[in-house]
Amino acid sequence: MLPQRMKKVMTDNPKKLANLIDLVNLPSTLREFMGQSQTSRLGCFKRVWSYIKENNLQDPNNKNLVNCDEKLKTVLLGKPQVELTELPTLIKLHFPKQPR
């Protein structure tokens, strides 16, 4: 069963959903981090989030901040610390818009 918001997005704008779930060839920095050559933007975000949780990279004093290790810095454009709200934007930069 899909959440109501997801149903609305799918019916209102199917292209927006397709941009999240379409498989694309990854650039070399993401390919090394993900360990695969193709994934969706949503899959990439999930992998980055699980990496943050597995390695306890959230700031213990402020859970809205992520302290990047060297491997994560390669994906997040070299930033030493990012806010959780920035993550989707920084990941999206690796997925250039493709003409349809």
From TrEMBL:
Pfam family, one: SWIB
Superkingdom of the organism of origin: Eukaryota
Residue ranges constituting the DM2 domain according to the UniProt record: 19-97
Protein name per its UniProtKB record: DM2 domain-containing protein
InterPro entries on file: SWIB_domain, SWIB_MDM2_dom_sf, SWIB_MDM2_domain
Any one GO cellular component localisation term in the record: nucleus
